[in-house]
Amino acid sequence: MAETIQLTQHIEAFIDASRSTTQQAASLDAIASLVRKDVLTLETLVTEMEMYLTTTDNVIRARGILLLGELLRHLVSKPLDSATMHSLIGFFTERLADWRALRGALVGCLALMRRKNDAGMITITDAKEVAKSYLQNLQVQSLGQHDRKLCFELLECLLECYPDAIAALGDDLIYGICEAIDGEKDPQCLVLTFHIVELLAKLFSDPCGLLAGFAGDIFDILSCYFPIHFTHPKGQEVDVTRNDLSRALMQAFSSTPIFEPFVIPLLLEKLSSSLPVAKVDSLKYLSDCTLKYGAERVAKHHVAIWSLIKDTICTFHTSVLSFAPESLNGVEFQENEIVTESLRLLHALVMQNPSFVSLIIADEDINTIFSSITSYQSYGEIPLQNKQKLHTVARILSVSIKASIASCNLVYQSSFTRLMDILGLSVRSSSDDCLPNYNCTISRRLNHGALCLCIELLAASRDLILGSEELVSKSVYGDEIWCSLLKSFSALLIEAFTFSIMVTNEDGDDGDKYLGVKGLQILGTFPGGCLLISNIMFERILMVLLSVVTENYNDELGWKLALKGLVNIGSSIRRSHESEKAQSYMSIVVEKVISLSSLTDDVPFPLKLEAVSDIGTSGVDYMLKIVKGLGEVLCAKISEVYVYGNLRSIEILVQLLKCFSSKVLPGMDNIIDSDDIFVQFAANIWNQVESCMDPKIQIHEEEVLDEAMMVMKLVVAACSVDSQNIIIQKAYAVLSSSTFDLKKSTTNMPICLDGPKINNMSSRDDWILSLFAAVVMAVSPQAHIPNVKSMLHMFLILLLKGHIPAAQALGSMLNKMILHTNTGDISSDCSLEEAVNIIFNTTLWIFHDNSSPSTSRGTDANEMDLTTLCYSFIKDRCLPVHVIIGLAWIGKGLLMRGHEKIKDMTMIFLECLLSGGEKSALLPSSEQDVCYSVMKTAADAFQIFMCDSEICLNQKFHAVIRPLYKQRFFSTMLPIMKSLVVKANSSLSRPMLYRAFAHIVTDTPLVVILNNARGLIQMMLDSLSNLSNDILHKDVLYSLLLILSAILTDKMGQEAATENAHIIINCLVALISYPHMMLVRETAIQCLVAMSGLPYTRIFPLRTQVIQGVVKALDDPKRIVRQEAVRCRQAWASTASRSLHS
Questions:
Q1: Quick one: 1113 exposed, middle or buried, by C-beta within 10 A (0-12, 13-18, 19+)?
Q2: What is the per-residue pLDDT across 972-1002, written as a single tens digit (0 to 9) for each?
Q3: Which pLDDT belongs to residue 647?
Q4: Which of 86, 279, 817, 845 has the greatest number of C-beta atoms within 10 Å?
Q5: 325 and 335 in contact (C-beta within 8 Å)?
Q6: How far apart, in whole angstroms, are the C-alpha atoms of residue 625 and residue 585?
Q7: What's the domain range around 56?
Q8: Is residue 63 part of a domain?
Q9: What are the pLDDT digits (tens) for 567-626?
Q10: What is the predominant subcellular site recorded for this chain (predicted)?
Q11: What is the DSSP string of 90-146?
Q12: Number of domains in the chain
């Protein structure tokens, strides 16, 4: 009883039109859930709803029938027996005559007819009755949009799911559909109507059948929509686009050949339209109709279609040839959509009926163009209009060839031999496997136009073969006409292209070189299975291009073209897996360019490296060979510098290392099983450093060592953990052989700072220590570093002597260490907490002048730890700076992993900033610069904390990175920095605090800054004002100003800026005159322009101040600043005309 009452309440809630849509939907879901869970049967539900379904109250009856229809839509997967289905569909079929309850009847019919077979479907007889009722009772165009859409969906469902049931309705069905769709304007409904026509064409597919008599009527209805002109009110959400409508109409047009007499004339007429969209749509529709109507029906329109295609391409094809090396990839034509669609239509026509080519070949205009453009010898002689015509003909012939083997034969028969005659090439001296005499056959400059067309024909025929796996694998075209012609002229073409590359152009025309290289590249990339180009010819092509790379290096364009051609040929070999060609390429090209890099000839070394690195990108095997070969060259150059003291090789060594880090090693990222190569490469470098570097040679080239470290890091980072362990063991063995005594690097004795400075180390030791640090920076957390505690002490000693890589290595070690000791991890003999204790609790002895470790510690040395050393201003002014930099990198490693020790380290740096200012006031003026240096370094430590380093502690080098670590640090530091700035009394401390704050802000993710803009702006403005007083802060000032600019151009930031408009403008106006950096002045003015867009009432009172301030910038020595000043003055002057409500 309770359930019945509850059901009645749900029914009445839905029936009541005054209820909200949310309440109605909830009631509908509740009833559907009861039926779905079998708490309520469908029969019981219908019985309970009988009154609502049959009442004479039109509103209640309409809502009741709609409720039943919606319930069935929700229960589409619930199985129903055939009797229930028959009863329900019979009810809704009758209700189609009840126009007041039509929506519910349509929804119910659709719900029942869309059911799947496993849930129960209506019978063909029932479907036929639905269709009859539909045709007899519905006047679709008199209904509202939603009901019309339901009507079309029902009709679509009948045609898709029950075609056999409704086909018997014959004329009545077709007439009813025409009546229903005629005059439809709604986009959603139109998509359905177009699809209905397509389905109707499939139902009555017989060209002589029933639909033929209605074809004209249906076309009259459809044709008024072409081309689609689709607009809708701005801001209105529409889920149908113009492309959706156009595609649906196109499919309706092409749905049956019966429409051909009507559709194609219309499309040809619209193709002549001046409206670009009409041209594009006409071409698209013609392409689709061509494929679907069939060759016989389209053939009668060939002449008219060709005439319009030709005119369209000639009118809109305005591109000319590009000689850039990148265009050798075949993308030199920049075509608009009209030309693209015209060529697509041409391809469809030729592919369907190769005889269409005869129209092109016989065309008088094409032949006139052909004759005129081949009358010019060089590219420079050809007028611009004729250049465009040249490429128009080239594209037409190219597309025709790519359509089919048959069309390729026709074009080659008519055009290829003609081009060979123009070029003066005779087949008499050529053979399949032998090359003619290259020194005597070509004696004059080749016709550029003929050469260009010839290359297009070659490229198109090659692409035709490459586009079909069957043709490539079976070589079924070997006896085709085009293949025979090409084989007979292939050797002579190689000779002609070679001559074009080598010819000296007196008028500076680069076209010959470009075409020569492109021609050789095309011939070199024909599939090997087609046997068009023998291996002898292929090797000849490689040698010609390689000779340009190795000898003609003064010809920049020719050199780049030849190199690009070689790279493209190598890439083609990789894609086609041609082993014979691959062997030739390896022996002729790869090995030659590797040997070239070791020769001391006249070829500039950067060009050698460019050649070898680019060649490596063409294939995995080539790159592996190059890495090995260049590794040997690298070791040889290291020996030249550090064994024989050859200073001239330093620049070459730097270039070689940069090539490795920027080109060669990144090119191996996706190469599988490269570990062996990397391990051997690293081992070779370590062997070189260990055995072949003279300790007496004192060459400290920081750039060389920095680049060598980067190469080592990239190699180690790319290895697996096992391979990293092998490299670490090798590096540790070499480290043990250095003059640095690892036995002294233990935790049971203090560190005595009496050893040699970094600059006094031997080159060998400097390399060993730096490269070992590089290895440590790059290994993954799972790798194993031996003797970790000694390593920590060693790096700590080096850190104190100013060795930055040691500091970075310490930061990396602490970042990747495990919290507790566990076998197999990076620090199996030392946990993170132990490492932190070692670093911060190690005792340091700082000896005075003329003292040594043997002297009594109480009288001749100061004893302190790292923290104390940061605050001390000892005789060695560099020592505190070294400590702070080292702690910054250590802190960065801890910060990134979220370690609590970072709080203590942060306070150390802040204490330096605060106490340094006080101590500075007590020191003589001659020693105050020591305090300044220490404080500046402490402020810059926050930049190290927050920056994304490319050197170490990044994802590439396997750093442990806690999500949102920057955001957390920013949130922690912001209130602290605000408090310290207020408390700071020293004129030296405050700017340094602002500098530290600026580093934190500029490296925090922008979204965090924008979310905190209200609390940041005041301190940012104070920072800008304070930092502008010292030229040494100019870079930090500019970075902070960029953040302010980002705030002013963001909607969220503008809200905060509006509240502080006055003080922001005061600050920016002052920066307009900043003398030390043009970028600051320019950005400040740009910020003022952004401020002009703030609410009128906030900025108008400041208008005069801004305009007067900007006047100064109108005389700025930098033009770009003056331009921004003019723009700013105009923007602020226009605020006078803005409304108070804007």
A1: buried
A2: 999 999 999 888 877 788 899 999 999 999 9
A3: 79
A4: 817
A5: no
A6: 12
A7: 2-169
A8: yes
A9: 999 998 888 888 888 899 999 999 999 988 877 777 888 888 899 989 988 888 888 888
A10: nucleus
A11: HHHHHHTT-GGGHHHHHHHHHHHHT--GGG----HHHHHHHHHHHHHH--GGGS-HH
A12: 1
- For residues 1088 and 1124, what is the distance between their CA atoms, to the nearest angstrom? 10
Look at residue 39 and tell me if it is in a domain: yes
Q: To 10 degrees, the CA torsion angle through 581, 585, 586, 591?
A: 160
Tell me the pairing of strands 844-847 and 861-864. Answer: antiparallel
| Element containing residue 732 per DSSP (H, E) | helix 721-736
Asked whether residue 58 is assigned to any structural domain, the reply reads yes
For residue 551, what are the contacts with CB-CB under 8 A and spacing of at least 6? none
What gap in Å lies between CA 1000 and CA 1036, rounded to an integer? 11
Mean pLDDT of all residues belonging to the chain: 84
pLDDT category of residue 222 using cuts at 50, 70 and 90: very high
For the record, the structure tokens of 1060 come out as 């502080």
Q: Would you give the DSSP letter of residue 833? A: H
Would you state the structure tokens that stand for residue 1125, as one six-digit string?
């000043």
Rounded to whole angstroms, the Cα distance separating 446 from 424 reads 8
- Indicate left, alpha or beta for 115 from its phi (over 0: left) and psi (-120 to 50: alpha): beta
C-alpha to C-alpha distance for 103 and 66, rounded to whole angstroms: 7
Q: What percent of the chain has pLDDT over 90?
A: 41
Higher per-residue confidence, 4 vs 95: 95
Report pLDDT for 437.
Answer: 43
Find, among 409, 413, 444, 442, the residue nearest to 425 by Cα.
Answer: 442
Say how far apart CA 1045 and CA 1033 lie, in whole Å.
18
Instruction: Write the CB contacts of 41 (distance below 8 Å, at least 6 apart in sequence).
Output: 35
Paired with 862 in beta bridges are: 846
- 837 neighbors 904 (Cβ within 8 angstroms): no
Phi (first) and psi of residue 683, to 5 degrees: -65, -40
Please check whether residue 72 lies inside any domain of the structure.
yes
Cα separation, 600 vs 594, whole angstroms: 13
Lowest mean pLDDT among 139-143, 665-669, 1110-1114: 665-669
What pLDDT is recorded for position 431?
Answer: 46
- Say if residues 287 and 345 touch (Cβ distance below 8 Å): yes
Beta strand 751-752 pairing with 861-864: unpaired
The answer to whether 1058 and 1015 have CB atoms below 8 angstroms apart is no
Read off the tokens for 1139.
Answer: 């409304």
- 396-416 per-position pLDDT tens digit: 999 999 999 999 999 999 888
861 DSSP β-pair partners: 847
**Rounded-to-integer distance, Cα 935 and Cα 880, Å:** 10
Q: Which residues contact 196 (CB under 8 A, 6 or more apart)?
A: 152, 155, 156, 159, 177, 181
Which tens digits make up the pLDDT trace of 250-275?
Answer: 999 999 999 999 999 999 999 988 88
**Packed helices 448-466 and 511-524: angle between N→C axes, nearest 10 degrees:** 30
Q: How far is CA 234 from CA 231, 237, 439, in A?
A: 9, 9, 71
Which residues 6+ apart lie within 8 Å of 84 measured at CB? 42, 43, 120
Token pair recorded at residue 796: 């700590």
Integer Cα distance of 167 and 181 in angstroms:
18
Report pTM: 0.79
Q: Are 774 and 735 in contact (CB under 8 A)?
A: no
Is pLDDT of 332 > 90?
Answer: no
- pLDDT tens-place string over residues 792-825: 888 988 888 889 999 999 999 999 988 765 544 4
Q: What's the helix, strand, coil split of the chain in %, to 5? A: 70, 0, 25
In terms of DSSP H, where are the helices of 1072-1102?
Answer: 1078-1091, 1096-1099
> How far apart (Å, rounded) are the C-alpha atoms in residues 1015 and 982?
15
CA atoms within 13 A of residue 930's CA, in its CB half-sphere = 20
